[in-house]
Write a structure and sequence with these properties.
Structural class: mainly alpha
Organism: Streptomyces sp. R44
Protein name: Co-chaperone DjlA N-terminal domain-containing protein
Radius of gyration: 14 Å
Number of strands: 0
Largest sheet: none
């Protein structure tokens, strides 16, 4: 496991635990120019997406979910492009493409979207601390492969 993987999973773990100070501190150590940037969070995002949509989802279902998600945000919805979110979710549902990191044109915005959606899905699925640790461990295994 690389330091980048550990740092990304620490960032996600802090977010899931609502440890915003830890989240900010750990996020500062991320290197968006790094060759593996986004892979660990991408793996966790994909796992969470496939749990949230266990039977997959049509483009229409994904678009509907994106609209609902953006409509539920009290602030910051303008930070997210609906079409880009829909593409990320579709990629997340495809295990082969879910762990891509810096292959997106804007890796930092991709990371932000994946973090926010993963947090939402963890909450929607009612994953407690043990299941969250399992999610992070599974993401670690996938991103190391």
């Amino acid at each position: 496991m690389t330091t980048a993987t550990t740092t990304e999973l620490d960032v996600l773990g802090a977010l899931l635990a609502f440890d915003f100070i830890g989240f900010a501190q750990k996020s500062a150590a991320l290197d968006p120019a790094g060759p593996r940037y986004g892979r660990a969070v991408g793996a966790a995002f994909g796992i969470a997406a496939r749990r949230r949509f266990p039977k997959g989802a049509t483009a229409e279902e994904i678009d509907g979910y994106v609209g609902e998600f953006l409509g539920s945000l009290e602030a910051g919805a303008e930070d997210f492009d609906p079409a880009a979110l829909a593409r990320l979710i579709a990629e997340g549902l495809n295990e082969a493409t879910a762990a891509r990191g810096g292959e997106h044109p804007d890796p930092e915005r991709t990371m932000q979207a994946r973090l926010v959606l993963t947090l939402r899905w963890v909450r929607e699925l009612g994953l407690g601390p043990d299941e969250q640790r399992q999610l992070l461990a599974e993401a670690e295994r996938l991103s190391a492969a």
